[in-house]
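A favour, since you know our structure tokens better than I do. Just paste the record in under my message, thanks.
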Amino acid sequence: MSDRLYLMPIGLSASPQSEEGDAVRLAGGLVYVHRFAAIVRRDGRVVGRHRFTPATAADTFAQLPAALGDDAEDQWSALRTAHPALQLGERTIRLDQPQIAGILNVTPDSFSDGGKFLDRPEDGAAHAAAMLEAGASLVDIGGESTRPGAPAVWEGDEIKRVVPAVEYCAQMGAAVAIDTRRAAVMEAALDAGAHMVNDVSALRHDPRSVELVASRGCPVVLMHAPGPAEDLHADADYDDVVFDVFDWLAVRRDEAIAAGVAPGAIVLDPGIGFGKSLAENLALINALPLFHALGQPLMLGASRKRMIGALSNEAAAHQRLGGSLALALKGMDAGVQLIRVHDVAETVQARNVWRGLRDAALTDFSTLAD
């Protein structure tokens, strides 16, 4: 039998003063948490759940099985860790507030905007410029569709698609992420001016990827997908999707670090829509605060995804703005640092209003006790 521990934030607070100081600043951001659950799982089943606040954390940890003591302290520290900024070229991406990553697809078949910018680089450059002007902190460029059933792309074709886009974005001074699972594409994009790798296979697809990322010293996003490197949507069989994804990401984080990737360069993504049902996607989004216990910044990519259509009378991809904003705001409430979206201007506006509300709560002292 093996016990696993999960420190789940379950009670968000508007401000620390609303809890008379008994609150944690989640991952150094603008979200505060007063109540937590220490959940013990044994052989895939939950066998214990202990609620606590910061004031009672030490007493609660003392009640856990002795073998979980170190993990409890590590996760508790991780939940309170303020992450340093990402330095992407000349751009500094602060992680003490939500940042918006704008999507630029240069593919013929992506589910939302495939083909729109592939053969018209001037349109792609104009779109990238508009996203930056609207407030995107970085541009995430992809040259292969990862929707279910999409055909694989030869790396030579993928390079031809993404390198021009990387070049014109870099010339604008943009922070650029390359969304790929192939080492040759990563290398070509980084040489062309990209600063960050976003790999939906979590460096599993290409055995050279982890060595390349480690040697280049660039930040990397490791995303959860249940299937093997060839079919990321396959093998979706979970005992509990939240805890299984948490454990999987912990393994991929540790393997990347063991291979030489700097711990401070790793961002984690729960992989919304990849090999997950509607119910599983919703469970993951509701549990997003838990993933800060892994000690890494988080990315959320739920923009225009099929789960929104499933909850909205099968609305087409281009008609999912409202749902995309709802999920983005849910991510912000969970302390997610990087929100990956198609609709940058609208999401930035929502983020700015959200930020105003958070700032106002921090300066509202009417909740203080007499």
Notes: The chain is about 35% helix and 20% strand.
